[in-house]
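Recall that a protein's primary structure is simply its ordered list of amino acids. Everything else, from secondary elements to tertiary packing, is in principle encoded there. The following example makes that idea concrete.
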Amino acid sequence: MTLSIPALGTTAVLAAVVDARLPAARGALERELELVDAACSRFRPDSELVRVNEQSGRAVRIGAYLHEALRIALRTAELTGGLVDPTVGRSLRLAGYDTTFRLVVARDADAFVPRYEAAAGWRKVELDDHERTVRVPAGVELDLGATAKAHAADRAARAGSAAAGCGVLVALGGDVSVAGDPPEGGWTVGIADDHGVAAVETVAIGAGGLATSSVTVRRWNAGGARLHHIIDPRTGRSAQTPWRTASVAAASCLDANVAATAALLLGDAAPAWLATAALPARLVTRGGRVLRVSGWPCTA
């Protein structure tokens, strides 16, 4: 049995090995969703991240959740050589992703002319672990979309499993995390090539996480251009990539999502990079050809 609730601009899906324990897991999931939204939302006026962005140029004291999320985002930027960078907030806003996505796609495409500006770079973020403050230079805006949701899925799965006393699966959009003992044969997860269509294959996971990043979702028109939310921090433009989707399995949902996003940005270099990291992955070209890397199953 599963349940679905709207959350974070997408849908949260929860499943438990023991159906009767689903309510306990749901409570843990809902608490986690509130925590990540209050700390990391770019569109919630009272979120901590909005406050940090509004006070750029000054050190801002932050709570434990945002502090952890920022440490993860900065570490991710370092490990990916700046490909997955939290300072893309301004780039996203200038390109037109400046409010909730429902409002972005609803507005007149000709009324907004996008601008393109490279990200400032993660090294400019000053995070003080002792004082628990963060300072970003004036004009720099943070966005944690590449890491915070996946990290929340991991946290929610662990908390849900502990509360329910059984195995739990949490999916936030394309970010899937599992914790506890899985059902026999593992959790079945559907993989789709395009958003809003039926899964074209399934895989089973028993631990860790799985994430799919795509340039076919969160797309909008602005100033005569067709844009999407995977921003290349080097240019401030929607990534030019041969892949329409990248699905990756890893030890955590966070690791999987970071790798899937990086793969889209790496373009032709993605298969070799994923193979070197020994990350099972499924890449789909713009034309629909499927490439499987590092043991991703050929059938499911």
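The longest strand covers residues 243-250. The mean pLDDT is 93.
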